[in-house]
Write a structure and sequence with these properties.
With 289 residues, the protein is mainly alpha-helical. It has 3 domains: 111 residues, no CATH class; 79 residues, no CATH class; 46 residues, no CATH class. The protein is 50% helix and 11% strand. Strands 1-2 form a two-stranded antiparallel sheet. Strands 3-4 form a two-stranded antiparallel sheet. Strand 5 and strand 6 form a beta hairpin. Helix 1 packs across helix 3 and helix 1 packs across helix 7. The protein is elongated, with a radius of gyration of 29 Å. It starts with 5 loop residues before the first helix and ends in a 19-residue tail after the last helix.
Length: 289
């Protein structure tokens, strides 16, 4: 439970913004409130949710900061073309109204400014100071772990792995496995549970490996799943020829569906009343291994 709350993250990000951005660029307190509210909405996003520029500008376009009023209109033809291009045809006709051009220019600059604030300040601050992840039983909610706290949690999990049956390879052993044995690789990350860490690996995607040579080249090694295709085909044939050889093992969701379907059909045809069905969930020790 060592993660920071959303309010704490927002307070930290806002304090950084206040210390970096000149006060004239942030405007008055009404703009502060709207900005902080939008940052809070951004921090509170769930996984797979989007946050576009219109949401960044919510309640802001009606009260622009005073620095925009200091930008004056120029009679330069290049300026008119820059302001009006893509918006109206008056630039070609030379009849562009200065007040409309000024409003259009201010709106455009303000949108660029807010976009820069979120993309070049808010997001980098969060990514540099927090490890952002989901948790085992909260798959949609996002949690923010301060980087020093996360490092301690990850180090403890790594120590636990070494105490079990894992071994950390040196560079020589690491590269020899890649070059000679051609094993599949996958990136591994830790997923927080209530009081421990779970190892999560994407065995479908190929892993980028950086070579330890003078050129510092990087290349992709095939994924774990692709390296096990031949073994998978052999096990499937064994199971097809002798269904009981592998016990209750299944090779995917389709096999699970087939087992449930046959069970349902047999139960439905044999009895007048559907019996009570008990589903047992077991957390098997060392199941990952």
């Amino acid at each position: 439970e060592a993660y920071s709350t959303n309010d704490q993250v927002v307070s930290f990000v806002w304090a950084v913004i206040r210390s970096i951005v000149p006060p004239d660029l942030l405007g008055d307190r009404s703009i502060w409130r709207a900005l902080r509210l939008n940052i809070s909405k951004f921090v509170g996003l769930q996984r797979f949710e989007m946050f576009d520029l219109s949401q960044c500008l919510h309640r802001l376009e009606s009260s622009q900061p005073p620095f925009l009023s200091q930008i004056r209109i120029s009679d330069c033809c290049c300026y008119k073309l820059w302001v009006c291009i893509g918006n109206c045809s008056c630039a070609k006709e030379g009849s562009c109204n200065s007040s409309k051009s000024k409003i259009r220019l201010h709106n455009r600059l303000f949108r660029h400014w807010i976009y820069w604030l979120f993309s070049s300040l808010v997001v980098p601050v969060i990514s540099n100071y927090f490890y952002v992840t989901e948790r085992q039983f909260d798959k949609l909610q996002v949690f923010y772990y301060p980087k020093p706290v996360w490092m301690k949690l990850a180090d403890n999990a790594t120590v636990y792995l070494k105490e079990q049956n894992y071994e950390q390879l040196n560079d020589v052993s690491y590269m020899s496995i890649i070059a000679k044995r051609r094993f599949g690789f996958s990136r591994v990350r830790f997923l927080p549970k209530k009081n421990k860490m779970r190892i999560v690996a994407n065995t479908k995607a190929p892993c980028e490996i950086k070579a330890y040579d003078q050129n510092k080249r990087s290349f992709f090694v095939k994924s774990v799943n692709s390296s096990l295709k031949e073994l998978h085909a052999i096990l499937r044939r064994v199971k097809n020829e002798n269904p009981y050889a592998l016990g209750s093992s299944v090779f995917g969701y389709h096999d699970v569906y087939q087992k449930l379907y046959r069970f349902h059909q047999e139960t439905k045809g044999a009895l007048l009343m559907v019996p009570l069905v008990y589903i047992v969930v077991g957390d098997v020790s060392k199941a990952f291994d």
